[in-house]
Specification:
heterotrimer; A alpha/beta (350); B mainly alpha (320); C mainly alpha (282); A: 350 residues; alpha/beta; nine-stranded mixed β-sheet; three-stranded mixed β-sheet; 14 helices; elongated; C: 282 residues; mainly alpha
Amino acid sequence: MKAKTILLLGALTASLGFIGAGAQAQNLSGAGGTAIYPVLSKWAEEYKKATGVAVNYQAIGSGGGIAQIKAKTVDFANSDKPLTPDELAAAGLVQFPQVVISITPVVNVEGVKPGELVLDGPTLADIFLGKITDWDDEAIKKLNPKVKLPKAKITTVHRSDGSGTTFNFTDYLGKVSPEWKQKVGSDTSVSWPTGVGGKGNAGVAQYVNQVKGAIGYVEYAYVIENKMVYTKMVNQAGNTIEPTMAAFQAAASNADFTKVKDFYLILTNQPGDKSWPITAATYMLMRKDYPADKNQAVLKFLDWALKKGQKQAEALAYVPMPDAVVKQIEDAWAVNFVTDGKPIWPVAMK
Amino acid sequence: MVDAVIRESGIGTRGRALDVVFRAATFFFAILVLVILFGIVAALIDGALPALKQFGFAFIVDSSWDPVKQIFGAFPAIYGTLITSFIAMLIGIPLAFGIAIFITELCPPWLKRPIGTLIELLAAIPSIIYGIWGLFVLAPMLQSHVQPFLVETLGAIPLIGFLFEGAPLGVGMLTAGIILSIMVLPFITSVMRDVFETVPTVLKESAYGIGATTFEVVWNIVLPYTRTGVIGGVMLGLGRALGETMAVTFVIGNSHQFMTSLLAPGTTISATLANEFSEADTPIYLSVMFALGLILSVITLLVLAAAKFMLSRMERQGGS
Amino acid sequence: MNPYARRRLVNMTVLSLSLAATAIGIIWLAAILWTLLENGIAALDVDFFTLDTPGSGSDGGGLRNAIFGSLIMTALGTFVGAPIGILAGTFLAEFGRGNPLAPAVRFINDILLSAPSIIVGVFVYEAMVLRMGHYSAWAGAVALGIIVIPVVIRTTENMLNLVPGSLREAAFALGTPKWKVIVFITYRAAMQGMLTGVLLAVARVSGETAPLLFTVVNNQFWQGVAMDAQMANLPVVIFQFAMSPDHNWQRLAWGGALVITFAILILNISARLLANLRGFSK
């Protein structure tokens, strides 16, 4: 009996020691979109090796990120759908862009290889509206005279969760198809006329891989990581564009954040001969009313990602923020995060 | 001597005080169970009120799900919940019945325990495993082999054809129903087995005595005798199917559109909660989530109460 | 065909069908277990148990933090839920006779027992996560504890009721106070059955995903026993990894699925063996 008691007490003390150790490092929690997740999780791994701080990011969708930062359950959030200056003021949030993401249609059609199929905005809209139901439809054949299209039904795959990727994709469809704009509109979650819903970019990619004849939309990093069958798109200038880093950079170069408030900028359907038509800035959201040390820890991580994380971003075809924009972002931090009259940024870096 | 015994046994003021304390402790924790349930119900009602006030009764029959315009209707989710559970029952009850007959009437005694255990192990497998098995194994198999066959054969029959139309996806309400049927099978089988065993042997023997076949004994003697218990077991399985979340979320296709075809994607209340609860970022959206939870709780509560009622009547009858 | 032959035919058909039904049930179990083994065994190496969850697009990695987190939260949930369940079950069995509250508690308990676990998750999100301002392993453990309680109450009550009244009467005759009778005599007699109940509860909550989704979510890293933060756990990791197209993640998800299923099956079978040891089963 005595030996057992001693063992138990010993185990308890040991575990208390564990609890203490766990609580010492300033670990951060974040939630938000799945589009940025591939690069954010890499940044988190590298950052932990560099500084010992663990940044735990849960990709639950942009809608989830917005909901959780408003509910104060996470330290920072991410959203591919920017909030308007009014929404930000009402919720006491600060937002700024972190990288530019690119959205690509992906398909699962027998015999079609990656990059073989060409689609344009109106056709894509009609597919997702449910007006085009078969792969050998005239509209698709017209864009792809040399591709052997099977007689198979199209299954559209969209996001079942609140998604900034959806927001940007539907925004693009609304810009190229008046019928889409009127019937469906654009938001993180819409009333899809047809198709199945997958959870997260990952879920959409999963369903597209599983269901023959499927078409979905995912952030390009998922295409790279999982070798998916992507399509080319026809952009605003009428050129057929392959989704490459150069095409994404061409689109992102049009982004001028100096002319807008709170960095609110929608980057879909950018002009330019070489631009990829569906790009977007993805935004980090933070609360103004969090304690200074918490926000400083988050800012240190995001600053590291903006300056030192560019290599990981480019490897996954995200367009990093150019130096001028980084300066603009950090000036905004100094203005927005103020405790006792003193800005909490910049902080002396170790 | 007697004093020593009394002192040792702890009788007296200290013993009685501890008695009161102990009894109070057990009473307190028993009440805690009530408190927890009432807490859950209260939290659900409290959270659901704004949505119910805004949409009213129409919430239950409305099919629109438009987070852009903030218009929500629970009908597709309720429909999906009921339809998938119905399919689960349609497949599960005959299977459970067959297994129960096998175990109680046909099986050699030394095999009863192992087979019973194997079937009950189906209940031990976590629901998320059913989900991934459904998505990776069952859905592709259904998409390539079973569903096209269904569309061509059953889809052509005039009155029920509308249930089997559309592109074969592999995922959808039918797949969810099939997975659910496997999940509820052990529950229904277990209850059926137990109530079948309560039938007095003399009743069965008299039937055998006049030349009845095994099937006739089961159909005419065992089933009527255990009728209430069987229904109770079925309701227990139904309650389980209605609330199942993870298995369904993987294979149901997550579409809020109301479609009549069983091959179409749909949603259930629990799948909607699993997918959208964390991201309901407006007060009304969150309230709609709570309202869905409330509706699910009410449905499950009614079914479970009915099950309990039937089973307790069976127990009383069995004693007679 | 004469009526007797037809009756024989019907009988034969039904009995064959019932045999087929049993075969279907067992084949399904075998199919699921086989899929788990086929896909999961490849993932089970030393790395699997010693490395933490990798980011997406990385190779290698393991599920150490998830396994550890699940163990911690399940253990905590059981430490909290089992005593509550045992004491409440004791109330129903020992003090409940004649008390009108007892049937009410029993009824409510059965409802809680079969309540969808996602509702428990929603409740703990509102009661703890929102109030605390962050997800935490505490909330996850509480959600699991709430699921443990009804299971333990049901088995405890049943087991205590099985203890022969003569044992209690003998103790009372010696002048033992009621609480001592219960704790030292009745509990000891029913210990096996009560432990079985706790084991079954542990098996039940080990696989629960939905309640953890809303209370603790997940954690990419290892953070020891940091209860006040998010903690990795097997079910949510399996959920996230299986739903992604990342092949490395899928491999790990199958491994995790194999580990969790066989752990639960072993717990179940052990509970059964324990219950049958001295013939205390139903």
